[in-house]
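Posting this for the archive.
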Amino acid sequence: MPAPGCTSVVSTSKHWPCLFPQHGPGKKHDRPIVLAPWQREIVDAHPWPFLRGLIHSDGCRIVNWTTRGAKRYEYPRYFFTNKSPDIIALLTTTLDAVGVQWKAAHRSNGTTNISIARRDCVALMDRHIGPKY
């Protein structure tokens, strides 16, 4: 059903698994998510679009805050959360490649939360990631 401002795109093909070999039955955190060699070449050549896609799908940019005494401090940071250790590894390996420092927190529900909070790294991410729409 058409909606204002929306475009519906449909594509069917038996060749989708050739383009996205990670696709498969079951939960993605229960099966391997590994880039094919040709995909790895693309990510290595264009890491920022890859990171943008990851952040826009399973991440966010927020303004965090803390207080020291009576003064409130605000600072931006990026978060990425996922249950798949393979997807976390793809993200963190690519962040390392572009020089973005990160910290991981492992949650009791099995997810891993990646935090990017260093001012210079957030600024670098801001230059390349852009707002999430």
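The longest helix spans residues 85-98. The mean pLDDT is 88.
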